[in-house]
Amino acid sequence: MSGVTVRFAGAGDAFGNGGRFQTCIVLRAGDDERLTLVDCGASSLIALKRLGIDPGAVDAIVLSHLHGDHFGGIPFFVLDAQFTRREAPLLVAGPPGTAERVRAAMEVFFPGSSTVRRRFELVFAEYAGGAALRAGAFAVTAFPVVHASGAPAYAVRLCHGDKVFAYSGDTEWTDALADAARGADLFVCEAYSFERPTKFHLSYATLREHRAELGARRLILTHMGPEMLAHASALADETASDGLTLTL
Fold it and tell me: What's 69's domain CATH number?
């Protein structure tokens, strides 16, 4: 079965610590020309273009939750698609309330943009009851986690054939992370702080306590705040950086 290429367009937190772009992970299944984004923070369009990634090749965006550093790039993405005369449909998959929140953000940033006539269809799909949905080349399953964002928050698991990519989103520790990561070829997990507890987020110390429960073949840390960045060179686990590319 063909592999999956994973590229971190953005591996940063909400505040650009370390000069990193906000969360945006690009997945490609085998030689498929289509791309799937996992999260699309406000800086994502810039990050994609800096890496030479064509936004027009993205046919699906999978969201973990509805904070601006994880979905706030969509209004820019959609408007750019209009200006570049995109014709292929674009799917945005996310928590209940995604369609409403995206349209509201579009109206805040670019009034009238949510209702303008486009050459392409903007399609929304929302997670429901643990059922898998299709996003581009991937089957997506969502796992409820613990992170307040005005809507439910999720870890997500994307499967293509026998290849499995899993991602924590933002969350404090919950057993759902073990469910999402179990048997995954790669589990990308947030670790915002090193030891200091931060509500609704994971510290590296907490993650290490539960490391054996994850059951993924490979773990990469992301969404690191200042405390984590200061310890990055001494960590026992791999860390993500903008531009990092690997193949599952």
Answer: 3.60.15.10
How many structural domains compose the chain? 1
- Predicted pLDDT at 129: 82
In a domain, 105, yes or no: yes
Query: Which of the 8 DSSP states describes residue 21?
Result: P
Which segments of the chain have a pLDDT < 50? 1
Q: Determine the pLDDT at residue 131.
A: 84
Domain that holds residue 137: 4-164
Question: In the prediction, which pLDDT does 117 show?
Answer: 95
Is the separation of the CB atoms in 45 and 80 below 8 Å?
yes
- Residue 137, domain member (yes or no): yes
Give, in degrees to the nearest 5, the angle at Cα 152 between 240 and 41: 40
pLDDT score recorded for residue 199: 94
Q: Which SS3 state, helix, strand or coil, does residue 19 take?
A: helix
Answer yes or no: is 95 within a domain.
Answer: yes
For residue 201, tell me if it sits in a domain: no
Structure-token pair, residue 135: 């996003």
Q: Following DSSP, what letter does each residue of 88-155 receive, concatenated?
A: S-EEEEESTTHHHHHHHHHHHHSTTTTTS--SS-EEEEE--TT--EEETTEEEEEEE----SSS--EE
pTM to 2 decimals?
A: 0.97
Reading the block at residue 108, the tokens are 């805040």
The pLDDT tens digits for 161-197 are 999 999 999 999 999 999 999 999 999 999 999 999 9
Q: Is 232 helix (H, G, I), strand (E, B) or coil?
A: helix
> Locate tokens 């030479």: which residue?
52
Token readout for 93 is 């998959």
Place of tokens 């940063």: 12
What DSSP state is assigned to residue 214? H
Contact assessment for residue 68 and residue 37, using Cβ atoms and an 8 Å cutoff: no
